[in-house]
Amino acid sequence: MIGIIGAGNMGMAIASRIKDRVLLSDKNKRISDNVTVAKRSNIIILAVKPQDMAEVLKEIKPYVKEKLMISIAAGVTTSSIEKALGKVRVIRVMPNMPAMVGKGISAITRGRFSRPSDLKITFGIFLKVGDVVEVKESMMDAITAVSGSGPAYYFLFTHLLAKAGEASGLGKGLAIKLAKATFIGAAEIACHDDLSMEEFVKKVASKGGTTEAALKVFKSKKIEGIIKQAVKSALLKSSNITKGEMACRK
Questions:
Q1: How far is Cα 246 from Cα 84, in angstroms, rounded to an integer?
Q2: CB under 8 Å to 223, separation ≥6 — which residues?
Q3: I need a labelling partner for 25 at 20 to 30 A (CA). Which of 48, 101, 168, 187 fits?
Q4: Tell me, what's the pLDDT at 250?
Q5: For residue 244, is it within any domain?
């Protein structure tokens, strides 16, 4: 039995794609409570907000011995969960929003007491919602900033491109349809060709053409620096969540 504590978007996305029996709990919904899920499950996925983790771990601690704990909470380290629960088997995962449609990318790292078989089980679960990569835990804050937060960057850029289209005379509906389809199509090409992103840019941007004119504006406005700064800000926020969460444990 797989138990999921936290029935938000990600918890529900995982539940919808797991073929095994699943128990769900959420403090804001009339479904199973946390203790029931912890008692009846062999694998427990912690899909709660970082600020709620300490309370949840305290509540389920008496019922998780010998069980596999999988946390998808941003900024919550495997060591902090181990400290709260004892010598439990912990796997930490950073999935992202496209998991809701089976197109996610999840980064996975092992806790101190986890086994190779636990990693295999976790891979099996998250391959059902997209791709999976194993990483060192020290990389998790950067991964959170890139792929965890990344879908929002895509949505923002799509929105801004559509708005620019409207400002250029396109109807609102047509502008957003063009922006969405363009990015989806470009992503499909990128997934089916081994070219680097720089090479793809060159394929679209003919010398002296319209795309080159637009790219020159991006460069003059230092878009690369803006993106680096944004990702760095997200990384620092994730790091601060980790530090704050650990401080609460002292």
A1: 10
A2: none
A3: 101
A4: 46
A5: no
pLDDT tens figures, 129-141:
999 999 999 999 9
Q: What is the CATH number of the domain that holds 160?
A: 1.10.3730.10
132 and 157 housed in the same domain: no
Which residue intervals of the chain are DSSP H helices?
Answer: 9-17, 34-40, 50-60, 78-85, 116-126, 140-143, 150-167, 172-191, 197-204, 210-220, 223-249
Does 225 lie in the same domain as 108?
no
Residue 17: predicted pLDDT: 87
Do 57 and 168 share a structural domain? Answer: no
The reply to whether 40 falls in a domain is yes
pLDDT tens per residue, range 95-106? 999 999 999 999
Q: Buried b / exposed e across 22-56, counting CB within 10 Å, b at 16+?
A: bbbbbeeeeebebeebbbebebbbbbbebeebbeb
User: Among the three residues 107, 136, 165, which one is the final residue of a domain in this structure?
Assistant: 136
* Cβ-contact 238, 138 below 8 angstroms: no
pLDDT digits (tens, 9 = 90+) for 60-111: 999 999 999 999 998 899 999 999 999 999 999 999 999 999 999 999 999 9
Residue 247, pLDDT > 60, answer no
Mark whether 30 and 129 lie in a shared domain.
Answer: yes
141 lies in a domain?
A: no
Tell me, rounded to whole angstroms, the distance of Cα 175 from its chain centroid: 28
Domain interval for residue 191 = 150-232
